[in-house]
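Q: Convert this sequence to structure tokens.
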Amino acid sequence: MQPSTRVIRALVDLAGEVVGINTLIVRSSQTGTVAEGLGFAIPINTASAMAEQIIQNGYVAHPYLGISYQPISPDVAAAYNLPAQWGAYITNVTSDSPASTANLQTGDIITGINSTALDESHTYLNTLFDYKPGDQVTLDLIRNNQTMQVKVTLGTTTTSSSS
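A:
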């Protein structure tokens, strides 16, 4: 029995420069797929940064706030009569986390991070991942229909290279 091998396929531009690492490519099949050539890739800057962290530390560190949340979109906001069209509704704050240290509360709505408003193009998680563990960020919040800003220093959560 041969060991399985994993083929990593680079995404290249017309100049032959690597611009990403393909993670999924949809090809036509007998099931009638109509999205021939549709692909998804990790941008090369992200892949390079992750590879560098794995080489240096043996793991990838991610920024950590310490909340569970429900994404808010205009449909969700309308259904639950929320005061924000976009954001992250905090459903739980982990004890001894950066969020608990900053006194975030269940029911708070995060509407922005460091002046970047959360919206369709800037989701909570994608915006959070623009920062590194240890960075101090200012969260725009709505609490009890009052807007406020809270400074928080992001913690670390890791992904092991062996998992």
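The first helix runs from residue 44 to 57.
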